[in-house]
């Protein structure tokens, strides 16, 4: 009877451990970003913001696959002898990264590396060149681009299922500003996830 009690207790502990091992996590994320654009005609450091959905598959306790679906806006400005120029660039981005998690307690450090696909769909141009505001949808000259993504951050478990995240990411790609121009995008995201 004593051995049966021990086996039963071990089985309960094992089931409880499995219950806490949530393979899938879904959540919301958002934050701001600043870019560096290698083009003398434009503002070198345009600002932007992103918001969207976050999903993660925990392959093991330390390794995971993370993806997001983000809506992004960035405002680019320039001034020259011809007049002032401001363009609001709207796009969707899907980063897909491999994630390594360090830590055994509620607080974990996150290390990310992967790829991102960006699809721009709208530009709003406010310029003295064109005499006002012009909106362009699905401009074929731009807006399909891939990028490298590197990031780090932290994750804190409020409960067994609910966690908060902070992520700092660097996105390196060719810009869609007047052709293939090299640019970097530094992002700071805050989010919340729920384990399934």
Summed up, what is this model?
The protein contains one helix and nine strands; from the N terminus they run H-E-E-E-E-E-E-E-E-E.
Could you explain how this protein is built, in words?
It is a single chain. The chain is mainly beta. It is built from one helix and nine strands; from the N terminus they run αβββββββββ. The chain has one helix at residues 2-20, and strands spanning 24-37, 47-58, 63-80, 83-102, 107-127, 132-137, 144-157, 162-175, 181-195. An eight-stranded antiparallel beta barrel has the order 1-2-3-4-5-7-8-9. The relative contact order is 0.20. Mean pLDDT is 78; it is low at 10-20.
Task: Give the biggest beta sheet.
Answer: 8 strands, antiparallel, barrel
* Mean pLDDT over all positions: 78
Task: Determine the N-to-C terminus distance.
Answer: 36 Å
- Given as residue ranges, the uncertain stretches (5+ residues, pLDDT < 50) are 10-20
Rg calc: 22 Å
| Major beta sheet, strand line-up | 1-2-3-4-5-7-8-9
The helical percent reads: under 10%
Estimated share of beta-strand residues: over 45%
The succession of helices and strands, N to C, reads HEEEEEEEEE
Helical stretch count?
Answer: 1
The gross shape turns out to be: elongated
SS-derived structural category: mainly beta
The counted number of beta strands is 9
């Amino acid at each position: 009877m004593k051995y049966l009690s021990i086996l039963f207790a071990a089985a309960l502990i094992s089931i409880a451990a499995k219950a806490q091992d949530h393979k899938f996590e879904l959540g919301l994320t958002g934050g701001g970003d600043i870019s560096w654009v290698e083009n003398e005609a434009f503002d070198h450091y345009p600002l932007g913001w992103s918001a969207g959905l976050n999903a993660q598959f925990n392959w093991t306790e330390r390794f995971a696959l993370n993806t997001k679906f983000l809506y992004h806006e960035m405002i680019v400005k320039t001034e020259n002898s011809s007049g002032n120029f401001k363009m609001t660039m709207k796009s969707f981005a899907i980063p897909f990264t491999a994630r390594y998690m360090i830590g055994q307690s509620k607080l974990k450090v996150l290390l990310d590396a992967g790829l991102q696909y960006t699809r721009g769909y709208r530009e709003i141009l406010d310029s003295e060149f064109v005499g006002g505001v012009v909106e362009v949808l699905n401009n074929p000259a731009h807006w399909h681009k891939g990028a490298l993504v590197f990031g780090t951050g932290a994750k804190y478990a409020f409960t067994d299922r609910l966690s908060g995240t902070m992520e700092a990411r660097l996105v390196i790609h060719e810009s869609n500003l007047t052709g293939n121009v090299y640019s970097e995008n530094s992002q700071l995201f805050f989010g919340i996830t729920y384990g399934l």
